[in-house]
Design a protein that fits this description.
By secondary structure, the protein is of the alpha/beta class. The protein folds into 2 domains: 7-42; 44-170, Immunoglobulin-like. It has 2 helices and 8 strands; from the N terminus they run ααββββββββ. The chain has helices spanning 8-28, 31-41; strands at 44-50, 58-61, 65-73, 79-83, 92-100, 131-139, 143-153, 162-170. The strands form 2 sheets. The chain has a 4-stranded mixed beta sheet with strand order 1-3-6-5, with no helix packed on it. The longest helix is centred in the N-terminal third of the chain and has 21 residues, at 8-28.
């Protein structure tokens, strides 16, 4: 004979209560609120990909649409791309910043490089090889805002080594 857990009934009641609560929460939201939440928090396709050549131009996004900016970076030299945008900007929201290290024979900025790759497995990570900094933004509210990134060493005051500046318009 299989013995039933003494908590089986309580567990079933808890699951039913949680499902009912979720249903009430969803029912309380108007269609406009649901659409606003979808646009604000979900990425709207298509994602726009740009690189340093975007400098001096204007990029137009829809609310909720993603912008991905990729820039060559070599942190082993002390240089990193940093955002010079005001923290109070409400037109676009920074989502994430990543760095992908360069790999022997597969660095994104030197595809014809004559390097030796291992015969099996992924290419070896090479210290000192430039990689790629990736900045992800999302269009949040209608308006326009300047985006400025500076390539600099944190300990060196003064002008940055490079600057990428462009305008983003969210409609």
């Amino acid at each position: 004979m299989i013995e039933e857990s003494p908590f089986a009934g309580a567990r079933a009641n808890l699951v039913a209560l949680a499902a009912f609560g979720a249903l009430l929460f969803l029912a309380a939201c108007s269609p406009e609120q649901k659409e606003a939440a979808r646009i604000r928090w979900n990425l709207v396709d298509p994602t726009i990909y740009v690189d340093a050549s975007v400098a001096g131009t204007t990029v137009t996004l829809d609310r909720g649409q993603a912008l991905v900016l990729r820039l060559e970076e070599n942190p082993s030299t002390g240089y990193r791309w940093v955002s010079a945008m005001p923290k109070t900007d409400t037109v676009i929201a920074p989502v994430r910043r990543d760095f992908t290290s360069g790999r022997a024979g597969t660095t994104p900025f030197a595809p014809d490089q004559n390097t030796t790759q291992p015969t099996s497995g992924p290419p070896a990570i090479m210290p000192g090889v430039p990689g790629e900094a990736t900045f992800r933004y999302r269009g949040v509210d209608a308006g326009s805002t300047p985006v400025t990134l500076e390539y600099r060493r944190a300990w060196e005051p003064g002008a940055p080594a490079k600057t990428v500046a462009f305008e983003v318009v969210v409609r």
